[in-house]
Amino acid sequence: MKAEIITIGTELLLGEQVDTNSVYIAQQLARIGVDLYYKTTVGDNRGRIAEALRLALGRCDVVITTGGLGPTADDVTREAVADVAGRPLVLVPALLTHIESLFQRWGRPMTENNRRQAYVPEGALIIENPVGTAPAFAVDLPQGTIICLPGVPREMKYLMEERVLPYLREKMGGRTQVIKSLILRTCGLGESQVGEQIEDLMQCANPTVGTAAHAGQTDVRITVKADSEEEADRLLEEMAARVRERLGDAIYGTGSETVEEVVVRLLTQAGRRLALLETNTGGALAARLRSVPQAEQVLALAEVLADAETVAARFGGGEEAPWSSPSAAVRAAQELLARSGADLALALVGSMEPGGDPYTARQGVTQVALATPQDVAWQTHHFGGTGELTQRWVGTRALDQVRRYLLSVLRSQGLPKPA
Ligand code: ATP
Ligand code: MG
After folding, report:
1. Distance 154 CA to ligand 2 centre (A)
2. Quick one: which atom of ligand 1 is closest to the CA of 70?
3. Whose alpha carbon is nearest atom 20 of ligand 1?
4. Predicted pLDDT of residue 361
5. Which residue from 79, 133, 254, 313 has the highest number of Cβ atoms inside 10 Å of its Cβ?
6. How do the domains of the chain map onto residue ranges?
7. What distance in Å separates the CA atoms of residue 394 and residue 396, rounded to the nearest whole number?
8. Residue 134 CA: which ligand 1 atom is closest?
9. pLDDT at position 357
10. What local confidence, expressed as pLDDT, does residue 308 receive?
11. Which ligand gives the minimal distance to the CA of 67?
């Protein structure tokens, strides 16, 4: 079953109201395996709503609309549906009684325009709305089915779950399926590198495999359609195993897991404590770690120094700008390791240009050094400055450096590989 969602409301087009309804409906449709092919947004305009409906019916089996069922003159969804169906709007006495009884209960006079809500296109299936005044309805046409829900998120959600999903299940003759996704989170590889390594898997039709880039990390999303949850999980796991084969340790977690959560977990598991020194990231990395419960147990010390020059003055470094070579970061990490008594020390020493970020000309540099009792390793990132994107990007890459080190520690200890 192919579906399209049409969200109706000029406020949505003006950007005044975020369209959350279609997000919710999309999630619900996935639960029963309805293929959502399009989402359309249209203003409170009868002609354009009708046009959107005709287009949707031409390419999908079911069209679900939200909004525009209210009592005022700018709520014209029911008129537009009637136009498309070629049927008149008819009064449904039971609906009128429902609306009248609500107003009686509230002790408010019912205005004439409230009667509008008791009209539906002739032959429509009424979807009673016990949580609001605007009734919902469905119209079966030779081209497909139109289901109209109110715009108020609370009402829409109730009706979607309690009425529309059972209705669609029945329409599908009980042959519902499930659409499920699994996200593998990777770090350290760019989106294009990830894409290249799983290019052939990305051609598969079911499950489908896609990528999404974030600052310093890339997600691999696997989506499957199957007859049951169990079948879906099995197919997702099979594909995930193939992706894992290709990307290995670049995959740091699944679902909504963050790198900082994984690092805190690995530190705990390995019984290690981390010390941290930041410059251009201004404490953003420490804040990310501290957002994870249990961080206090594994974070031995977190310092912020004003800039790379301060780091060089305190710990020594090369002749040139302290961030142009890793030496200042390396010395800072070694000194921090000794002073803090931690098991590993991470120093981020970067240039400070305020506008610096990965996409401006003044991109800058951040040197990241990780000192351990055995040795010190460093990475040079060609992103510097104090911009939010740099802080995110460099922070994620630095956490990834710690993560990969901890993985090697855990493996050498013969501990089971963490999930
Ligand atoms: P009712 O008559 O019960 O108020 P309605 O069908 O006329 O419902 P609208 O008047 O279009 O709905 O919208 C009602 C409320 O729901 C408004 O506050 C609107 O901003 C919000 N809303 C409408 N569409 C959406 C959407 N797609 N996502 C989130 N909120 C929405
Ligand atoms: Mg509206």
Report:
1. 14
2. 2
3. 17
4. 67
5. 133
6. 2-171, 178-254, 259-412
7. 5
8. 3
9. 61
10. 83
11. 1
What is the whole-number distance in angstroms between the Cα of residue 352 and the centre of ligand 1?
46
C-alpha to C-alpha distance for 239 and 210, rounded to whole angstroms: 12
At residue 113, does pLDDT exceed 90? no
Looking at domain 259-412, what is its CATH homologous superfamily?
A: CinA-like (3.90.950.20)
The predicted pLDDT at position 131 comes to 87
Instruction: State what percent of residues in the chain have pLDDT above 90.
Output: 74
Q: Which of 6, 13, 17, 133 to mutate to test the pocket of ligand 1 (most atoms within 8 A of CB)?
A: 17
Total Cβ atoms within 10 A of residue 18 = 9
CATH of domain 178-254: 3.30.70.2860
Least confident of 239-243, 323-327, 366-370: 323-327
Q: What's the CA-to-centroid distance between 184 and ligand 1, angstroms?
A: 35
Query: If you take atom 15 of ligand 1, which residue's CA is the nearest one?
Result: 152
Is domain 2-171 annotated with CATH 3.40.980.10?
yes
Which pLDDT belongs to residue 312? 83
List the one residue out of 373, 334, 332, 336 whose CA is nearest residue 349. Answer: 332
Q: Is the CB of 135 under 6 A from ligand 1?
A: no
Chain segment 288-305, per-residue pLDDT in tens = 999 999 999 999 999 999
Work out the percent of the chain whose per-residue pLDDT is above 70.
Answer: 96
